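Structure first, sequence second, as always.
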């Protein structure tokens, strides 16, 4: 199968609403909503770096899009389209069919059309760019947190990191528990409805991709504030709650790949109910820096930091 057959077979569909020209021409042509702002983000997934060669290709298709949609969610954007740049070592039709199935399932569930991309031979590498929209002035940014705001997080934290530790061989879990945390790692749910519902309510937001402490640190720096977090208040699965305390803290505070939203809002703000649990985990303060305490208010020494590709 050649490059163009491959694109037609796996990645071309009739143009969707709001897309004047999709896959097949030199550029896609999108129809903007009058007055809206574009929100654009790219995330690359590299074999051996972001995923193992043994990963289920359907789950990889899901995750490649999910991590990108999570950035749109963090900004409160409505998805409008995405491009897919793909380097493949060879044409493996079964692999491509499964990858495309996982990708399209999430794309359809999120109402986001595939509008173009690039396909080349090379070491397995996936780069998606997402395009979204938000009304002027309503994108959720990292810079709006103010002293006195509360810090909230969606869903549960830490399961993806726990799964990574199982793959690394430092932790062992019974089969069903492992399947559960593995799903958290391989099939994250981008919080699109929550992000959109937080427009005009949250003062700042981001999604957790590299670990809560580091990611929240970016928000605090952008907002020029500090925070105190209660590690015992952080939402975790029953599986994680059964692990040793130190491991729980590592997974909660420094685990990457959660793709939950962290946001700030003034006390008493009416938070949206979109069927995703929200948990208050701390408070924004004028004093710079990020402090972690336990349920009794005692400081927690953690020595943790988030994932950084260029630091070991
Ligand atoms: P060009 O050479 O003009 O840049 P290509 O030959 O790379 O275009 O691609 C042909 C068409 O197929 C374009 O519309 C491009 O956006 C689309 N395309 C290529 N690869 C992919 C892919 N992996 N997923 C979706 N669309 C793709
Ligand atoms: Mg061209």
């Amino acid at each position: 199968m050649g490059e163009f057959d491959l694109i037609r077979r796996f990645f071309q569909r009739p143009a969707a609403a709001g897309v004047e020209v999709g896959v097949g021409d030199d550029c896609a042509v999108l129809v903007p909503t009058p007055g809206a702002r574009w929100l654009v983000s790219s995330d690359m997934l590299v074999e051996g770096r972001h995923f193992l060669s043994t990963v289920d290709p359907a789950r990889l298709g899901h995750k490649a899009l999910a991590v990108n949609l999570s950035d749109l969610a963090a900004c409160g954007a409505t998805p409008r389209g995405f491009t897919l740049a793909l380097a493949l070592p060879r044409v493996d039709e079964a692999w491509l069919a499964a990858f495309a199935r996982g990708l399209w399932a999430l794309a359809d569930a999120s109402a986001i059309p595939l509008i173009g991309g690039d396909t080349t031979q090379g070491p397995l590498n996936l780069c998606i760019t997402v395009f979204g929209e938000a009304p002027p002035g309503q994108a959720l940014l990292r810079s709006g947190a103010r002293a006195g705001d509360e810090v909230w997080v969606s869903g549960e934290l830490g399961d993806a990191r726990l799964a990574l530790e199982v793959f690394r061989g430092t932790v062992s879990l019974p089969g069903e528990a492992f399947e559960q945390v593995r799903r958290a790692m391989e099939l994250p749910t981008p919080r699109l409805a929550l992000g959109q519902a937080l427009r005009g309510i949250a003062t700042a937001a981001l999604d957790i991709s590299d670990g809560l402490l580091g990611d929240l640190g970016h928000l605090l720096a952008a907002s020029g504030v500090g925070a105190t977090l209660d590690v015992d208040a952080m939402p975790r699965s029953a599986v994680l709650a059964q692990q040793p305390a130190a491991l729980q803290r590592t997974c909660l505070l420094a685990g990457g790949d959660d793709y939950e939203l962290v946001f700030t809002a003034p006390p008493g703000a009416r938070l949206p109910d979109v069927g995703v649990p929200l948990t208050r985990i701390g408070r924004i303060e004028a004093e710079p820096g990020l402090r972690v305490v336990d349920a009794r208010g005692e400081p927690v020494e953690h020595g943790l930091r988030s994932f950084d590709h260029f630091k070991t």
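Margin note: The chain has two domains: 3-134, 150-293.
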